[in-house]
Amino acid sequence: MSQLTSEQALYKAAEQRILLLDGAMGTMIQDYKLEEKDYRGERFADWASDVKGNNDLLVLTQPNIIFDIHCAYFEAGTDIIETNTFNATSISMADYNMQGLAKEINLEAAKLAKKAANKFTELTPEKPRFVAGVLGPTSRTASISPDVNDPGYRNVTFDELVEAYVEATHGLIEGGVDLIMVETIFDTLNAKASVFAIQTVFDELNISLPVMISGTITDASGRTLSGQTAEAFYYSMNHIEPYSFGLNCALGPDLLRQYVDEISKVSECFVSAHPNAGLPNEFGEYDMEAEEMASHIKEWAASGLLNIVGGCCGSTPQHIAAIADAVKDYAPRKIPQRDVKMRLSGLEPFVL
Q1: What is the pLDDT of residues 119-161, one digit of tens each?
Q2: Residue 7: in which H helix or E strand, if any?
Q3: How far apart are CA 98 and CA 90, in angstroms?
Q4: d(CA 194, CA 213)
Q5: How far is CA 276 from CA 118, 124, 254, 293, 297, in A?
Q6: In what order do the strands lie in the sheet with 270-274?
Q7: Within 13 Å of residue 232, how many CA atoms lie on the same side as its CB?
C-alpha cells in the first residue's frame, strides 16, 4: 500500500472513484447447502445445542469456505469486504449457547478477511483492498419492548450492549481490520451503544479507525424500526464523524433510492448503500438479477448519490461485478458544504 496508511488509502480511494462493497455472505453460504455436521466441524461435534444456521461459526469450522467467498467478491471488483461477524456478539451468540466464543469468532473472521485482502492487494498494489469489521444490530433492541402487553419492558440494557460490542470490537481490531462498520441499524439506541463501545476500545488501545454507519429503512414508511426518518437518523449519529453514512438491507434499489437521496443531501461524509437484490418472494428468495440491480445503481451513480456501493441480501459476486461495471465511468459524490446550523433529531429532524 506504498507509503500511505490504511486510513489515508481509504480516503484517497473514495475521493478518486466510487468504491465497491461486497455482497451477501449468507446468500453465498446457502449455495454450499451445509448441514448440521458441517457447521459443527470436529471441534463442536458434541455441542449440546443445534448450531446449523450460525453462519459466523463457520470462520472456525469451515474457514476455507468463508475465505473463498471473500476471494470471489474481490475477483468481482470489491474494494471493501465485510467480516463474517454479523451476529458475532455475545448477545446474539447466546442463541446457540456460544456467547463465550464471540471474541474468538471476531478475531478469526478478521484474520480470514485480511488474508484475502492482502492476497488481492499483492496482485494489484495500485488497487488496495480493505476489510470492514462488522458489528451487527444484535438480536435484541434497547428502544422497543418485545412484549406487546408491557411497553416498558426491555430485554437488554444499554450497558449490556456496550459490553458485548466492546468485546467484539477488540476481536476485530486484533484481527487486523482497516475500519469498523456498524450495519443494518434498526434501533438508534443499539447503534449509540455500539459507537460508545467502539470509542471506548479506541481510547483503551490509543488508536483510531474509520467508522462506517449503515442503517435500515424497514418499509415504505421511510423510517427505521425505532421510528426515525433517514435524515433524523443521520443527525443522531453524526457526532462520531463517520467515514461514511448510509443505508442497507430491507429494501431493493428501486425502493431504497429516495432514502439514499435524502442521506446524500445532508451527509457531510461519504455516502454508502448496499440494498437487497429486490424484495423477497414467497419463498424468501431474491429475484432481482445482476443486470437489473446494476441498472438501478447506475442511475444512482449518474445522479451523484454515491461514494460506496454494494449489495445486501440476495446479492452475489455476479451482482457486484455488474454494479462495478455500471458505476466505473461515474465520479463519486461530492461532499456538500453546508451552512452552520443547529441540527437536532427526534423521530424527525429539526434544523434551526
Answers
A1: 999 999 999 999 999 999 999 999 999 999 999 999 999 999 9
A2: helix 6-16
A3: 7
A4: 10
A5: 28, 29, 10, 9, 12
A6: 19-20, 308-309, 270-274, 244-248, 211-215, 179-185, 130-135, 80-82
A7: 17
User: For residues 74 and 81, what is the distance between their CA atoms, to the nearest angstrom?
Assistant: 8
Give the integer Cα–Cα distance in Å for 302 and 309: 13
Torsion of CA 25, 29, 35, 40, to 10 degrees: -50
> Which secondary structure element, helix H or strand E, spans residue 185, and what is its range?
strand 179-185
What's 243's DSSP letter? Answer: S
Task: Report how far residue 304's alpha carbon sits from residue 145's, in angstroms, rounded to the nearest whole number.
Answer: 39
pLDDT band at residue 3 using 50, 70 and 90 as cut-offs:
low
Element (H, E) at 309: strand 308-309
d(CA 224, CA 21): 22
Give the pTM.
0.96
Please give the Cα distance from 44 to 98 (Å, whole number).
10
